[in-house]
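#lab-general

N.A. 3:47 PM
ok so I finally got the sequence cleaned up, no stray characters, all 183 residues accounted for. can someone with queue access submit it? mine expired

B.Y. 3:52 PM
send it over

N.A. 3:53 PM
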Amino acid sequence: ENQIVPASVAGGSGASLTSAGETLHQGLEALAQAALPIGAGLTGHLRLAWTWLPDAEYRGTRFSSVDPGVRVTGNRLPYAAEHVGSLTLGVSAPRWRAQVEGVYTDEMFTDDLNTVPVTANGQRGLIASHLVWNATANLYLTERLDLYATVKNLADKTYVVDMTRGLVPGSPRLVQAGFTARF
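B.Y. 4:20 PM
back already:
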């Protein structure tokens, strides 16, 4: 009845939130997991998560915050990707575990007008779909000490995640390592 959505800087509203009025969200979410016996002391696992949001639109009488004279009823809501999913594949043994994960986000509009070309100021337009790969590894040294390493955005891919303040890129490659000690 009264959804709050990101406002577009290009519309003069500032990088704040605004009322979208009545909206409709309909979709499906699914999760599937499977253990994969490999043998030789190894076990694999597979996990697939998927969200499908075919309907994410303005309902009722709604006019654009970017161009108040334009009716946007029926337009897709900003930042509402139709498909979002992840696929994880892992292998583990008694003393270690490793996995790789792919995270997919479908294209998204950034304003209520559903603008496709990116504007000169980078504050409106279609954000392209992107796939980001991550990996983790854990080594269990003792009952009290574990080592871990994580790499996010393995390919160091540049992609856009937001345009409310101009073109905002996603996280670059991030490598973290550490340990867990239990006393």
